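Re: the request from the purification team.
They wanted to know what the chain is likely to look like in 3D before they choose a buffer screen. I agreed to run a prediction and write the result into the notebook, where they can find it.
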Amino acid sequence: MPFLELDQIEAREIFPGIRIRAPHGENLMLSIVDFEPGGHVPLHSHPHEQGGVMLEGRMELQIGSESRVLEAGEYYIIPPDTPHQARAVGGPARALDIFSPIREDYAALWADGEAE
């Protein structure tokens, strides 16, 4: 399991227009997030620390009361229990999210072992 190929992990839709692939280990989860044009992750929070980097396209990210449009190569850190939301801007977008500890709700989407 130390090497994975993205195209071998089935994408799961978590919100309309938002699909993820989320392989994980014991304490760390990587999540490729694909946004269709207009895709939106609604305001939410969770106890996991989350960091990430924009890979393609543009995404408006609100963390707490701050909002910014991010482009490829820009990073973000979201502290635990901090409300945040995201949406694609101007077309499709792709980001890599990293969670610690792993998000059990995301891991459950691949309970058959595909993403592990």
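For the purification team: The mean pLDDT is 94.
Please add any questions underneath this entry.
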